[in-house]
Amino acid sequence: MSEEPVAIQVVAQMRDQLCGAGIWDDADTQHPHDGLLRAIRGAGAQRPFFAAGIAALLRDPDLRLRTGAVACLREVVQDISPGRVAQTVSEEEALFRGVRPAWRIEFADLEQVAAVAAASQVQSGDPVAIPWLRRLAAERSWGWYLLEDLARADTDWLLENAVTLVAHDNIAVIAALPVDRRADLIARLSPWPPEKPDLLSRAFWGRLPAPESQRLRALMWPEAA
Fold first, then answer.
1. CA angle, corner 215, sides to 161 and 122, nearest 5?
2. CA–CA separation, 103 vs 138, rounded Å?
3. What distance in Å separates the CA atoms of residue 207 and residue 166, rounded to the nearest whole number?
């Protein structure tokens, strides 16, 4: 099947589903994008064609169609490319920034959903996505959601801006950094407030090898080591 018919089907699915007759819907469909998401996951070699349809819908003036595309973006962002997503969302900022989706999806802001999806696949040196993600991380109230991926893909910038961007309770950023750069972040954010262990922090430290966990905690709270 060529790209054009699949892209047309993607649009048709979203339009028809809104009327309760999506071509990829089944008895388990709960949200308007469920059928499309299911089709993408089973697309195999046709996956890039679905991605092309999603990319086109990102610019659609109909909020419902745009919501469906953004809701499925994580599944195809690598096929579209984080850079292309960044370019689209920045060029069409009025269609995304502060715009509530037509139904409940991952976040209540389309720009945030798109940015988090792009960040999940961004690679170091991306000339379009990295500057865009940097700007959002610094300017948006939800920018902290992007910090783990920026720690992975843009380590030097993240460390240079850690004091203003990384809160002490966002310790997941530590694990996202290369092992040999974690102590640098800890030093930049020192002194650390007293540790208040909770379920989330215990789960975080449990994800790391015990020697690494002990090493980092000794740097953060030397008086307790």
1. 40
2. 27
3. 20
CA nearest neighbour of 83 among 144, 124, 45, 46: 124
Taking the mean position of all CA atoms in its chain, how far away is CA 221? 31
Q: Which amino acid is present at 113?
A: V
Q: Distances in Å between the alpha carbon of 73 and those of 31, 109, 163, 186?
A: 15, 14, 31, 34
Note whether 133 and 85 are within 8 A (CB).
Answer: no
Token pair in block for residue 225: 């080591």
Q: Which of 77, 90, 23 shows the shortest CA–CA distance to 50?
A: 77
CB proximity list for 120: less than 8 A, separation 6 or greater = 74, 77, 149
pLDDT digit string (tens) for 54-108? 999 999 999 988 999 999 999 999 999 999 999 999 999 999 999 999 999 999 9
What φ, ψ does residue 92 adopt, rounded to 5°? -110, 40
* Global pTM value: 0.88
Angle at 160 (CA atoms; ends 157, 179), nearest 5 degrees: 75
Q: What are the φ/ψ torsions at residue 134 (nearest 5 degrees)? A: -60, -45
| pLDDT tens digits, 126-152 | 999 999 999 999 999 999 999 999 999
Is the distance from CB of 162 to CB of 133 less than 8 angstroms? no
